[in-house]
Amino acid sequence: MKRPLLIAPSILSADFDRLGEAVALVEAAGADVIHVDVMDGHFVPNLTIGPPVVKALKRVATVPLDVHLMIDNADDTVGWYLDAGADIVVVHIEACNHVHRIVQTIHEAGAQAGVALNPGTPVSALEGIIADVDLILVMSVNPGFGGQAFIPTTVAKIEEVVRLATAKGASPRIAVDGGIDVRTAPLVAAAGADMLIAGSAVFCAEDPSAALGAIRTAAVTTLV
Ligand code: DX5
Ligand code: ZN
Prior knowledge:
Layout (H helix, E strand, L loop, with lengths): L5 E4 L9 H10 L5 E6 L11 H10 L4 E6 L3 H10 L4 E5 L6 H10 L3 E6 L17 E5 L14 H14 L5 E5 L7 H7 L3 E4 L1 H4 L4 H16 L1
Parallel strand pairs: 1-8, 2-3, 3-4, 4-5, 5-6, 6-7, 7-8
Helix pairs in contact: 3-4, 6-8
This protein binds D-xylitol-5-phosphate (DX5) and zinc ion (ZN).
């Protein structure tokens, strides 16, 4: 059975002096999940937010928080984000020493576990973990910044993730992150993505609510 498509605005492109307002705005526009980008200045060349901000967001958000850890040594610090209230924690397969152990830790805390894949990482890297996770996040840009151009080979990569999941008898959600807008949303949804993460296309739009709705409509229309 097909699951409903989820739209997850990334607050990376929101005004950091008004994060609470940004969350309220996109929730009112129908956001299903709030995507929170944690960057450490090592795994990616940018530094954003940490557990205290996740904790603050948890106080205001009424939909689940999806915390995307673009950090080295998530093995050591994943607990911080679970304690801060993350509902979904996504770690990069390229940055974990023991990805199974992290997934176990996330599940033991009652949260959902996701594994993310950089554009340069092959889908085969997921073979040993795909059956154990709730979500696979396919990066459609190199992580680190909002507003980058969608990498077109992502579409085939999503299809490959779907094939691998089927072969393993698994059915994780498939999220796609980077360069998602009204033009790319239908492409990734048709390929099998069922969680679309969009930052600049929502928060840099003149009317973020309308932009979020337009992305959903564009994606859902392609599935009918
Ligand atoms: C990029 C982040 C994304 C980012 C996407 O490294 O993981 O979540 O916010 O931004 P857009 O939608 O502008 O590409
Ligand atoms: Zn992200």
